[in-house]
Every structure is written in C-alpha cells, then in structure tokens.
Amino acid sequence: MSKAGQDWDEGGPERLYVITGGRSQSDQHAPLDLVTLIVAKEEAQLGMQPEFAAILRICRTPLSVAEISAHLALPASVVGVLLHDLLADGRVEARAPAAQHPDIALIEAVIHGLQKL
After folding, report:
1. Using CA atoms, how far apart are residues 42 and 40, in angstroms rounded to an integer?
2. Residues with Cβ < 8 Å from 72, sequence gap 6 or more?
3. Between 6 and 85, whose confidence is greater?
4. What is the mean pLDDT of residues 86-108?
5. Do 79 and 73 touch, CB atoms closer than 8 A?
6. Which of 12, 69, 91, 93 is spaced 20 to 30 A from 39 at the CA atom?
7. What are the CA-CA distances from residue 79 to residues 32, 56, 83, 104, 111 (Å)?
8. What's the pTM value of the predicted model, to 2 decimals?
9. Which residues of 77-111 are buried (b: 16+ CB within 10 A; e: fewer)?
10. Distance between CA 70 and CA 112 in Å, rounded?
11. Count of CB atoms situated within 10 Å of the CB of 72
C-alpha cells in the first residue's frame, strides 16, 4: 500500500498544517500566554471546524490556553492560532488570570519579625 493510501496520522504535522491553514502564528494578535483564560461567548455551530467546536464546548467555563491544549491533545502553538481566529470572530473572550495578592498579614508578620532582630 502506498503512503498516500495509509491511514491519516492524527499526530502528524500534515494534520496540524491543515488545522491551522498553514499558519504558525496569528498575523493580527500578540501570542497568548499559557495561563490566559479563555471563555466561550457562544455555542458551537453545525458545520464548524471540529477543533473550533471543541474549544467552544470546553470553554463554557474559563480554561487556560494550556488546559485547552491538553484537552485537545494539540500543541499550544496550534491552539494559539485557533484561539486567535475565534477571538477575531468574537466567539471567545480572553481574560488575564486572576491576580493573586500577597497575604498582607503574613508580610506584616515577617517585617515585624525582622525588625525584632
């Protein structure tokens, strides 16, 4: 059997090329951080590219780019291209992760302890 007749390699570079339309990054936006949270703004539609539909389904609640990559078993760079397309179409929203503020009481206790030295 010729190579062309063999089964599609789900993890092969050809599949990734097709998924992203040959792009390795978005032309319009800065790269997304792996911790950027993505939230779907609409439901998946019939006829939509399967990867787009999967992102919209799993992002009903906020998920990081890294989590989306893991769920879809796709490299983060490929997920980034897909997310930029969805962002450009207004189908998802990107949010910065919630900032974790330091515990003020702990900082004050450390300062107080250092002053006693």
Report:
1. 6
2. 51, 54, 55, 79
3. 85
4. 84
5. no
6. 12
7. 10, 12, 6, 37, 44
8. 0.66
9. ebbbbbbbbbbeeebbebeeeeeeeeeeeeeeeee
10. 44
11. 17
pLDDT recorded at residue 116:
87
- pLDDT value of residue 23: 60
**Phi and psi of 64, rounded to 5°?**
-75, 160
Predicted confidence band of residue 22 (pLDDT cuts 50, 70, 90)? low
Backbone angles phi, psi at 44, to 5 degrees: -65, 145
Q: Following DSSP, what letter does each residue of 18-48 receive, concatenated?
A: HHHTT-SS-SSSPPPPTT-EEEESS---TTS
Q: Are 28 and 84 in contact (CB under 8 A)?
A: yes
For residue 92, what are the β-bridge partners? 40
> What is the rounded distance in angstroms from the CA atom of residue 86 to the CA atom of residue 39?
11
Strand-pair category, 37-40 with 92-95: antiparallel
Per DSSP, 96 falls in state P
Residue 24 pLDDT > 70, yes or no? Answer: no
